[in-house]
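Researcher: Structure prediction, please.
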Amino acid sequence: MPELARIVITGVGLAAPNGNSLAEFRASLLAGRSGVVPYEIRHVGKTLAGVCNFDALRHQSKKELRRGTRAGSIAVYCANEAVRDAGLELRHFDPQRIGVFPGITEHGNVETENEIHEVAKYGFDLSFWSHHHNPRTVANNPAGEVTLNLGLKGPAYCLGGACAAGNLGLIHGAQLLRLGEIDLALGGGVSESIRTFGIFASFASEGALAKHADPSKASRPFDKARNGIVVAEGGCLYALERLEDARKRGARIYAELLGYCVNSDGTDFVLPDAAGQNACIRGALASAKLAPEQIDLVSTHATSTPSGDVIEARVVREVFGDGRKTHVNNTKSFIGHAMGAAGALELAGNLPSLADGVVHPTINLDELDPQCEVPNLVANTPKNVGRVETILNMSFGMLGINSAVVVGRCRA
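Model: Predicted structure follows.
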């Protein structure tokens, strides 16, 4: 079997509740700045959310924004910023050999809810239903909006992987690069979840929606007082290239993709399964040809739910043991759960650790739940660990989908 092409990350474009570039996002993570704020949405009322505040008009016209979707706008922003960050000139590429692969949790809920709300004002007279509804709600919308904005003609579609989707977009882009079907991939994840009242209502009905008098303290993974999820929007797309191509153009390389795994629990609609998560992490390690003790940083998925965090902490202990060398952190404590974008954003926030050796903390960890104890969990303040060579990024989703990605410092 021929040796697989090495895939590297050369650009990062993101919109997070606490930063609109990797530099801003990283600065917030090191400074302990939360992006969770008070939020109000119809039928649910006052709640909390991770809300993005990026300049949508930087890459789109007002007309494009009116016609498109929030997820599409996030994807367009992230794609353009990733291309710019990578120093790429798209005119030097065959547009049919550039692929766009955002992971998503769901798509179309926002637009359908909005249309129903509008026609209800007119006695459900469907002549008031927008003719833009169908292109807004198709599952490939965010990817398609990127192709329209950048004039791309290659494969472009979304990867529906619930809250594991942010890793899936990166993985799929790498796979098509290795197959030689494309020369550049824009892969990661996007989410417009805070725009739909249905997600808030559903989490509330499950007793899984976070509450706290101080919004910035509501998302508190592994903490004894955690009480649920903070819903967030956002996105992150990576520019992915084959290493040989990146080196030819003298590109800056953030990291190399070393391995990955995607699997399914096959056990429950909502409840996570420790055995499935364990198998996914070990599968990613096997793919990367690394032992657990060779991982320097584990980025956890933990969403701040009572049972989910306990299960994930148990899995981390099972795989990494006493973890003398392996440090652990969590990004949702800053921004909430960005659903389809979560995995991509969480990896992005940790990428600079490969260069500076600093691990950003898990904030709001006032009293660690004893059941969530894991070795070397970085709490509340950043930790300079000296050197970070490898990162394992975990994301798990409803209906039992699990994903894990391993990246590392690119070597000769």
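Model: The two ends are 22 Å apart (CA to CA).
Researcher: Thanks, that helps.
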